[in-house]
Amino acid sequence: MFSSGSxxxxxxxxxxxxxxxxxxxxxNTVVEDPGIPLVSRGNGKYxxxxxxxxxxxxxxxxTNVMTSKFDNISYRxxxxxxxxxxxxxxxxxxFSFALLGIVLMLIETELFFQGVISKSSVASIVLKSCIxxxxxxxxxxxxxxxxxxxxxxxxDNSLEDWRLAVTFPWTYxxxxxxxxxxxxxxxxxxxxxxxxxxxxxxxxxxxxxxxxILMLLRVYLISxxxxxxSKLLTSTATQSLGALNKVKINSxxxxxxxxxxxxxxxxxxxxxxxxxxxxxxxRTCEAYYHPDPKxxxxxxxxxxxxxxxxxxxxxxxxxxxxxxxxxxVATGLMGVGTTALLVAVLAQKLEQSRAEKYVHNFVTxxxxxxxxxxxxxxxxxxxxxxxxxxxxxxNNSRKRIRLHGKLLQAIAAMKEAKxxxxxxxxxxxxxxxxxxxxxxxxxxxxxxxxxxxELKMKMTEIDSTIKDLQTKMDAIYTAVxxx
Length: 483
Description:
Radius of gyration: 43 Å
Structural class: mainly alpha
Low-confidence stretches: 1-66
Strand order of the largest sheet: 1-2
Shape: flat
Distance between the termini: 72 Å
Largest sheet: 2 strands, antiparallel
Number of helices: 16
Oligomer: single chain
Helix content: over 70%
Number of strands: 4
Order of helices and strands: HEHEHHHEEHHHHHHHHHHH
């Protein structure tokens, strides 16, 4: 018979188990309370603990601890997939609005250069208003992109509060910097400021040229577009490997990957892009702030940018405005950086591969072996000739001196071939060969340890066998003595 306390405990335990099973069937995620018994402790050997339980707590309350929604792996995977799809859509909108704004800006600027429209005309105001509208949508898309990134960080790290996914102040500075870059665009109307040209003459100039040139900074969105649309970079395997190795799959990773796989093509694209964009920027600066038929021509500006990029600078043409001088300085810095990358790529391309090094070293060693054998044969030949002259008592000193000289040359050639062969053997050893040698040494040491362990076991067996034999011999000796 059970006591009333044990029956009450069983009923409460049964109620708790039914509550948990209902929550599980309804899809709730519940952490099991270790205090809930899976079987009744009122039976058998657990009955002696019932009195202590009744004294410590007269009533049992059901406590269901709900866990975070991120503990459900299926929810996290579906949530991450949804956020990645949403991020792709946001980046598409970013790229579209940025490209639309740049195209409208180019159309408005070229129409102004050709004299078709003026800054106060209706067409110019309408085009700039469209640019402003696209910029507003672009800023909204930029904010949406960063919000999606924070949500992805929360999903990956199972964070409930978005503030835990934000690094202060770098995340805010990054968002602010991107907003400042994207917000730059020509404002509707004709806004002028007072400035002084290089000749020292004050005049009113429009700020549209500077805003139009700085608006080209939006081209950084091309890297975002490439990241979210590359099947290789957005695949599950790449994302998993990046997460395991703590590598971020971002624009920097894309640039490094492209420079590793196709460095020549990337450098040519970069140089052509710099040539075209900076030429247009130079033409815009000169046409706005120092109108001149020579400097306002696009092909003359391309020549100026080319000689500046290559750090040649013939001096036949040069910028006449501060804006153009700034573009020239920026072009020179870009040229120095691109030239450094080009030299590094050429050095890497001209370097022999591992297989080519092996083939070259093998052929060189064979040639040196052949030269050494020829030098050794010449040495023996000249020694025999000198010995024969000495044996025949020939007193031709000129011939003897000539043979001595040839003998010394043959010995020197033999030593030189030997030293060159040894030096080739030393230079042929690289990191791969060293790693292979280390792995071989590790394998040999492991085999030696295994052999030592086996030898130790055999010695132990021999020792035990000797002890058994000694015990048996003692028993035989005792039996013989008793008889």
